[in-house]
Amino acid sequence: MTALAGDRLPPPLAEGDRLTVDDLALRVRVSGRRKRFALTVETDAGLTLHAPEGRPAAEAEEFVRAHRAWLVAKRGLRERTRPLNPTKRLVEGEVFRYLGRTYRLALVADPPAGGKVNLIAGRLVMDREQAGSPAGGRAALVDWYCRAGRAWAGRRLQPWAARMAVPEPDLEVRDLGRRWGTYRPGDGDSSVGRMSLGWPLFQLPMHLVDYVVAHELAHTRVLGHGADFWRLLRSALPEYEERRSELDELGRRMWMGEMS
Ligand SMILES: [Zn+2]
């Protein structure tokens, strides 16, 4: 259909437009490859309308209204689970968590031997020179979490493995991005698998670290998250569901290594 001369067609939606439909504010993304409208709720709970080229706003509004219930529900979920991870600074008194307790950073000129970071008398002591470079200071802290976490979790592995009657895997603590833990089976039937735990996990209280240790240990018997997996985990840790939601809730407030 062609517009007749004199018709005043509204301009089509353009990339970067803001669209307001009732009380919903959406950002507009336009793509020539797209054939239909689509909606996404971003991790920060922002709303995006994806539109094909050359479509009028009225059509988009109708589409948004038809999917209003889904958008509102999804946005609510995003708001409740949105990451709230703090950033840290390498300054005297900055607070760091370890196994659920808080420790203040102390920058000293003459650090005790044995590591660039140490937990001494309730303070996290760091070489002042180290703190001069944010990247180096961050690396020293991450390294400390890895070493301290490895030592702590190493002692928890045996009792949990015994309780679950599963073999003890190798253990490493390192950067796993946003994951708390992973398990990789060994190759061949004689070799043991490997459990990896993410260093930020060790900021959490012990019972939540235990949850992740037990969770990954259950994977030594059952890979994936089917009914068998949860049955095995429940037999070792009956309150695993509470711990899992506590981990989700507290976990999104932990420091993941961002510096400011
Ligand atoms: Zn799992």
Offer a quick outline of the entry.
With about 260 residues, this protein is an alpha/beta fold. Helices cover about 35% and strands about 20% of the residues. Helix 4 crosses helix 5.
Could you describe the 3D structure shown?
By secondary structure, the protein is α/β, with parallel strands linked by helices. It folds into 2 domains: 18-81, no CATH class; 95-251, Metalloproteases ("zincins"), catalytic domain (Zincin-like, 2-Layer Sandwich), CATH 3.30.2010. Helix content is 36%, strand content 22%. It is built from 7 helices and 11 strands. It has helices at residues 57-66, 68-81, 128-131, 134-164, 206-218, 227-236, 240-251; strands at 18-21, 24-31, 38-41, 47-52, 95-98, 101-108, 117-120, 123-127, 170-174, 181-184, 194-198. Helix 4 packs across helix 5 (206-218). The radius of gyration is 25 Å and the shape is globular. The protein binds zinc ion. Zinc ion is lined by residues 215, 219, 225. The site of zinc ion has 3 residues, from loops.
Helices, strands, pairings?
Blueprint: E1 18-21, E2 24-31, E3 38-41, E4 47-52, H1 57-66, H2 68-81, E5 95-98, E6 101-108, E7 117-120, E8 123-127, H3 128-131, H4 134-164, E9 170-174, E10 181-184, E11 194-198, H5 206-218, H6 227-236, H7 240-251
